[in-house]
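#lab-general

N.A. 3:47 PM
ok so I finally got the sequence cleaned up, no stray characters, all 292 residues accounted for. can someone with queue access submit it? mine expired

B.Y. 3:52 PM
send it over

N.A. 3:53 PM
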Amino acid sequence: MSKSFEAVVLIALMALPLLAFSPPPIHAARPMVPAPPTPQIAALMKTSACSLPAPQCLASINWSGYAVTGATDSVTLVDGSWTAPAIARAVGNTCPDMVNTWLDASFWVGIDGFSSPTVEQIGTAADCLYGQAQYYAWYEFYPAAGFTISKPIYPGDAMSAEVKWVSGTTFTASIQDTTAGHSWSFSHTGSAPGALRNSAQWITEAAAGCITSDCSYFNFLALTDFTSVTFTGATATVGGHTYPVSSAAWGTSLYWIEVTTVFYPPPGPFLRAIPTTAKSGGFTIKWVSSGP
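B.Y. 4:20 PM
back already:
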C-alpha cells in the first residue's frame, strides 16, 4: 500500500495461532501501515449524525473521531483526555465475545497520519484476545515499531496525553494516569523521518491482524465493545494558534470521521463507531457494532 494513504491500521507482525494462549498486546513492537484513503471511502457512506458540511464528514475503515489539518510543518501540539473504557459485559479478565478471537479498540491523540506517511501517536487500548481482556498504554512513531508502555491501566482510569513537536523530525509523546492510588506518567522523545506535521487527531481505532507471517495479507479486527469514550480538553496548535476541537476557527480544516466496514460484501457496510458533535472542547465516540 502507498504510504500516502490517509487513515492507518495496526498490523501484527506474526500470524495468529489457532490455540488458546496470551499473546502480547497488539501495539507491542508492531508497525503501522496506511489504509485506503478516507476521502474515497467518504463518498460511499455519510450518516445524518454529522453536523459539519458534507465534504468534512468522512467514513473510515478503522478511525473514528476528529482530525484537523494544516499546511506542512504547521502542527506543533495535540492534547486530549479520556477515561479508559471498560470492555462491555466483561467479567473480570474474561471477555464476553465467543465468536471473534481478537478484538481491538485503541484510543489516542496524535500528529500526522491523516494525509502523510508518518504518524506520531500515544494512547490506551482495550483488547479481547481469545476471551482474555487486556488494557494497556502504548505509543508509536510510524514507520518505527510501536511499543507497549509498562504501566498499569484499569477501566475507569483518568488519562491525559499529548504529542508535541520538538524540532526537525523530533517529537515527544506523553501520557499520564491521574487516577488516585496508582497514578503514573510516561514520556518518549523520538524521531519520525518524513513527518509533515499537517494534521492532528483524537481517535478511536480498530486494528488489523496478519493472516500470513510476512503480513502480505491481513484482516481488519473486530472492534471491541467499549460502549463509549469521551475526549475532553481536546486541543491542537496549528500555525501558532491553539483551539479546542469544537472551535469554529477550524473552519473547513476540521473533519468528522466514523468507522464503517465499507469493503465487506453485502449485507455491509456496517457502522462500527460514530462521534457526536464536538462541544465545549470535547466529544464522545459511541460503539455501534464489532463489525463482521
